[in-house]
Predict the 3D structure of the following.
Amino acid sequence: MIRFSPGRLALVALLWLLASCASLKSSSPVTTILISIDGTHPKHLARLSSGTIRGLIDAGVQAEALLPVFPTKTFPNHYSQVTGLYPSGHGIVGNRMYDTVTNKRFDIADRVAKQDSSWWWGEPIWVTAAKQNVKVATMFWPGSEAEIQGYTPFFWRPFDYQFKSAQRVDQVLQWLDQEPDLRLVTLYFEESDVAGHLHGPTSPEFFQALQRIDGHLGALLSGLEERNRLSRTNIVIVSDHGMADTSAKRIVCLDDFVDAESQWAGKSPVLMLWPKDEETVTKLRQAHPHVKVYGEAEFPAHWRLTDNQRVAPYVVVADEGWTMYNACKIGVPKINPGDHGYDNALLSMRGLFVASGPSFKNKVNIPAVNAVDIYELLCHLLSIKPAKNDGSLSAFSKALRDLDAAEAP
């Protein structure tokens, strides 16, 4: 797999700098590629002392962290990034959900549910863009398989584990060949998340997965260079959440505390609960010192969870590193050594943000940004008017060339 060396990326940074200056005199559009490296914490990048990602950091912008939304699961966070909304606003309050109005259940493995537009509230970036005649393609992004407000991305594919990372890169490049006017393309890699779950976030296998992704990114940049597009392309790298170490020694079984008539939704370490009665809640609060039960009035403010048909009156959360099951009598599955979904205030749950390209400054570090800020950033890069959202562009004021220029006297 081809990788861009830091020296090669120094040249790329110069090309991006020249392109940003030229853009003041030219109408040539810039394309942005939004890349998600699932389950990756900023500290994990410190192990990449060389290669494509390290070169992109050296050539561009890195945030202290990307602050995820709660729950720190894949679907809620990816959809917050492209809508600028917290989960209560966009409706994806978990990877697995129950809707009390429609009496339907959602599971990320259920393709029919994923393509049901009634689950997807808010306005994702590809809909905002399409309304303003801007073309967007999505290579596996939660929400992009459904027709939302009558729109789908210009190009998209249903998620398929068998469609490997190298194939995804090739597909993105082919899409750019087919439609040169694509202004935004999303690209998703889950290899890191899978390795983190199966082997733990500090394992050699996790680092090897990051190295493979680094190689895929090198192939992407090489493909862009071959097409004379590199100097006109922004690369924005995010992750949806981090990963915590878990252990088979830290398991909590909830079967004896919750009756079969109570409704559950979700999967450890966060569960939504519609209890049969208050006695169930009382028992559950006494179940284990490493399990917290929050009533609606007790939800932490930083969760930003508000009352709606998919947010249960009680949310049950395990402490960091603990795993809970509500069906141990059926059998406790093998405990993976890594997991996420915990309180989004935990340092281990933080994601990453790296950006390089003609729209961004070189060698800049900025404070942590919020997941909901990414939508505002993308709208700015596409020069389109955003839909109503919870994010802010101000987090990127020291990272973007044009905002910096606009602030100059």
User: Anything to note?
Assistant: The chain has a mean pLDDT of 92. Residues 299 and 305 are 7 Å apart (CA to CA). Residues 204-226 form the longest helix (23 residues). The chain has 13 helices and 20 strands.
